[in-house]
Amino acid sequence: MKLAYRSLLMIAVATFPLIIALLYFMVTGINKDMAFARQELLGNAYQRALEGVLEPVLKLSLARAQGEDSAGIVGDIDGAFVSLIAANGELGEALDFTPEGLAQRKRQHASAAAVAGK
Question: How many domains, in total, are found in the chain?
């Protein structure tokens, strides 16, 4: 009986670090997936603001190609850029759209404020 107890104890001691390692990697993987999902949601919110700029730009291009009046569309573009700059202020740091983050990727010219000024 003493031998069976001792062998069970040795098995438990041998498998305990493996169980702890397995638990650690599971929790780390789940946390990584959750962080990715949070970034994805932030990116979707930023993309909606960006799409708000692209839609009137396409309308402006179409209106100018057809020779129509485009003054109202230009106002829509300006309003959309205001929304994009607000979204950039709210979400830009979390998405690494800061001047430093853009400079690391050599995209300084792609900031929302720089594009809105053109």
Answer: 1
User: Does position 47 have pLDDT exceeding 80, yes or no?
Assistant: yes
Q: For residue 100, what pLDDT is reported?
A: 86
Residue 26 domain boundaries? 2-116
User: What DSSP letter does each residue of 68-79 carry, written as one string?
Assistant: ---HHHHHHHHH
Buried b (16+ CB within 10 A) or exposed e, 10-34: eeeeeeeeeeeeeeeeeeeeeeeee
The whole-chain average pLDDT of the chain stands at 89
pLDDT above 70 (res 118)? no
In whole angstroms, give the CA distance from residue 60 to residue 93: 31
